[in-house]
Design goal:
This protein is α+β, with helices and mostly antiparallel strands and 162 residues long. The protein contains five helices and six strands. A hairpin with a 4-residue loop joins strand 5 and strand 6.
């Protein structure tokens, strides 16, 4: 019996080591893919992810502070991506972030006047749309928002699935 216990314990330890040593999907890669910009792997991302459960509902909120040199590279990528628009936000997106879902409050995002924003409505599964006209009229919401504050070199990221 002791022999089996040792093998089982060794197997569990190996699984734990394997799980923590291989990271196939970092938060940086996920945000980069969603927003169409490349966030370097070595930049620290402050985030909270509440997704889970049966349907995967929840939200992911993140904040990335860039140093001057890296912020210039990010800004070039944003300006060259047609899906990013200059601020201000549309009324629906502003209400969704600051009032309806309270996502901005989770990372203490102030009202930003100078910068760029990105929006994708993922409602209905594979349907991807940058129009937020129906955002507040549905019973559920699946959307992604990115906001880049050019005065403070901060990227805010929001992903909501209800």
């Amino acid at each position: 019996m002791k022999k089996y216990f040792k093998w089982i314990l060794l197997f569990i330890i190996l699984i734990i080591i394997f799980k923590f040593s291989i990271n196939t999907h970092s938060i940086n890669k996920g945000i980069s893919k969603s927003l169409g910009i490349k966030i370097p792997e070595n930049i620290r991302v402050e985030y909270e992810d509440t997704h889970g459960g049966f349907h995967g509902d929840g939200d992911l909120v993140a904040k990335v502070k860039f140093e001057e040199e890296k912020s210039e590279k990010i800004l070039i990528q944003i300006k060259n991506n047609p899906n990013w628009k200059p601020l201000p936000l549309t009324k629906n997106t502003e209400i969704a972030l600051y009032q309806f879902y309270g996502l901005a409050e989770k990372v203490n995002m102030p009202k930003i006047d100078k910068g760029y924003w990105f929006f994708v409505d993922r409602f209905g599964g594979e349907i991807m749309d940058s129009d937020d006209a129906k955002l507040l009229s549905r019973n559920s919401a699946n959307f992604t928002v990115g906001i880049y504050d050019t005065e403070n070199n901060i990227l805010y990221y929001y992903e909501l699935d209800t």
